[in-house]
Amino acid sequence: MGPPLPLEIYGLLMAKDAANALRCVPRFSGPRALNAALQDALEHPFAPARSSAYQRWRERKLARYPRRAEDLVVEVRDPRDLSASEVAQIRRVCGAANMAVYASPLAGVADKDIARRLGARLGLAQLHTNPLADEDGISALEAAPAKAARGYIPYSNQRLLWHTDGYYNAPAQRIRAFILHCVRPAAAGGENRLLDPEIAYLLLRDADPHYVEALSAPDAMTIPANAEAGAVLRPAQTGPVFSNDGGALHMRYTARTRSIEWRPDEATRAAAQFLQQMLDTDSRYVFTLRLAGGQGLVCNNVLHNRSAFADGPAPTPGRLVYRARYTNRVGTA
Length: 333
Prior knowledge:
By secondary structure, this protein is of the alpha+beta class. It folds into 2 domains: 8-43, no CATH class; 71-333, Double-stranded beta-helix. The protein contains 10 helices and 20 strands.
């Protein structure tokens, strides 16, 4: 057994943020692990009690945040072979908005290596697979009636409501980043609206700190189990909307009312309602774009939606977007 913790550390254990941090530390960890958890809890700006750290972070965030969707765009020669300067520029934009849009001349090129190699160049090595992804772990999102009939809206031409990817996953399978690469856009529609989760947190906290406190509760949101023909494909998942993920802010959210159960108290109801209203209004912080062929979105799992779309008449190929999901984040500058 290691030496006893200093008396001042025991005082800190009475703080709410410190207590929450210690729940994540293994039971028999030594003083070093406990001190590291406490330091993280006390310094990160997303702890409700850390108003001074939050205000400093807020000022920097708003000063760097892009003003227009065009400010997200980085021109690249070939996303399969990014140059050092292109990597640095994508990281810089992601550092400001947790997202960047790359534009390349590869319109119509149906090559999954585009997403895979671009992700690897940006340090996205932990590709997350799901039952509907292809064998290589990358999903080809296009109108697929068989998948759509099972309720998987990304494989239809219907609209997608606001969400973060993998909101239904267990913590060990948390989606921290994803890439959307557009091979072909739809003939009409298919626009995305995008919001940095850090800005969502900022707007909620500025409106009422109790909103983020309610949405940070460990039982704030439950995603019911996914079952087909009586078989449970995925168990129910309960967890917070906002959480501290190693010093970064993680958000899990869906606007689908049939896919969610909120904690049954007034504070959570008010916070969820405010968040939904915020997403439904035109905000200068929300970016609207329609990916063209050869363009792609790389992000730290930002909030996003998609409008309904229509493909052209056969035999014209329809909308095709490759999606790669990762359990690690894009490194930022």
